[in-house]
## 1
Amino acid sequence: MVRIGIVGVGFMGRIHFLASQKLQGGEVAAICSRDPKKLAGDWTSTRGNFGPEPGPVDLTGVTPYDSYDAMLADPSLDLIDICNTTTHHPDTAIRALRAGKHVLVEKAIALTPELADEMLAVAKGTGKLLMVAHVLPYFPEFRFAAEAVRSGKYGALLGAHFTRVIAAPDWSAEIGDADVTGGPAVDLHIHDTHFIGLLAGVPKALFSVGHEANGAVNYLSTSYLYGPGGPAITCNSGAVAMPGRPFVHGFEIFLEGATLSHSSAGNLPLTVFPKVGAAFQPELPGGGDPLAAFTAELQAAVDGVNSNTEPAWLGGQLGRDALMLCYKECESVRTGKIVEC
């Protein structure tokens, strides 16, 4: 049994805790927070943009720690699940790795690629897993797309367009603060750069146009340049929508033998348009459970610890490269130039 300690009991810490209830071979055995109410199970303040309404949780069998050092000294813990703010990710992760623990750190891995590189170096030196909790590939529609592209089931990837646009969240001011989260072009858009990297790798260069507010890029449109013969991939992402249309994400993926289409706008389901035959909507797992993707993500991390093998979709280098692309795009927005990756 992989015993997990969660650091940071905010919105994402709560989501991870709830999602862990359906794990096989893993369990949350400890939490760490400076808030005595949260340590006692009062999580009513952990509001977010999806999932069940926050409230009290049953922490029976879960050891509460108000000291991170005390948590790291617990020899029974195998995996530290880091859900605190992005500014604290490097220090929290490095201390856990050096304490002999495997690490799952929420996205973004860090605020800068240089800090991410330091984390990767420590993981390599300690021989422990550094996994980055990018959940998007575990959502059914994106999982189907990732498996279709990576398997070559419908032939080579020719091109794709991704969309992820939200209204400025009223539940978190931090997403717009570049000093805390990197701003929307990092905290939000990194979902896209991670998925694009997973499908096609790091491009040779990119070109972005966009808009800034309060020192942060809050909307951008990017062309990823893979060179002659490479896939033609574009994306638009940001936090500029009106409250009446608070969240839209989706994709059009063009393969040699099929087009894959999905949009959350109007609940348009994933549809496969094959080269031969009628379009169809594949049966997807999950059953409408909003936490199923997070359970699958955590299960991959637990399985990785059990096998001492880095899960492909949670790779530390993949998470670092996703962060790097976000900053290259911000550079392109600000300079108006093509930026090499």
## 2
Amino acid sequence: MAVRSPLYYNSGNLQEMTSTMVTQIVEQTVYQYSLNPSVTLTVHGSGVPGGPISPFSVISDTRLQAGAASTSTTAFPSEATTAEPSVVTVSYDRISETRTTVTPTADTGLTWPVYYDSSTIRAMSLQDVKDTFLHPAIDLLTSGSIGTSQGGTYHINSSTSVSGSTEASGSNTAVFANTQADTSAYTAGGIGETLDQPTTLTSFYLHKITGSDTAYTSPILIDGSNNLQEYPTATFNSLLQEWIRYTAVSSSDGYSLSYNVGATGNGVTRGSGMADTRLNGSGNYQTRFVNTDDYRAQEFPNGTATTINTYYLRIYKS
């Protein structure tokens, strides 16, 4: 590993950058990634065409629904003979990942900033650049935080509006909704009630984090005439963007960036967990007398909300 201290002009003199100055370039690298991420997540309105797309698994919202109503012409059907509440499962698979092929500018041996190597001023190698700028930037991007240092990456929130982020679908499309039987909708006077009468407790949305442009000191390069000059800002920014985008999708050093969604998985969680809760009761037995030839009974959902699963969006390096 070779973390370098690039040279810069300080009042006409060459001087090594401080660690703070190097960190500012790392932050700029993150910002350049945020402007054009190479690993993107897309929200689909109803599932993902073609089924689950790796590494995303189907996640499920479950809820109770009423058992079917029973009728008799002589007496109320007993609780033992009425149908029990059953589980309704709604599957969600609304996020897909796209990985963009990136072909960055080739390293000529003089492409990158210079540093002082005990007796010689030389250009940083690509490995130096990885160790000094690119890999630390990927470490920031794949952390569990959701600030500007994670610009261009994603997180989950139960609100459609999150400061510092943009809702990814553009139309407030939930990627998961936790529903539950609406016990207030079931009444004895309504037997036979509609079996499935849900209410939505919480919806969850995918958000992309907005980056922040970080000021930094321009490093020095060796130009085509073998002279030292300050890097033009636009040129250096373009190089950083090309190479961080390439690293995020094509690193062979364990620094490519990926996501997964599920109850378990690799990586660190991003944002809110998406809880699937369900009532745990065995049925609320109710009867309805309509007339001497119409006795009805039905079991409604009841009980306490219990968490069945909690799903997370995760980001990781590989």
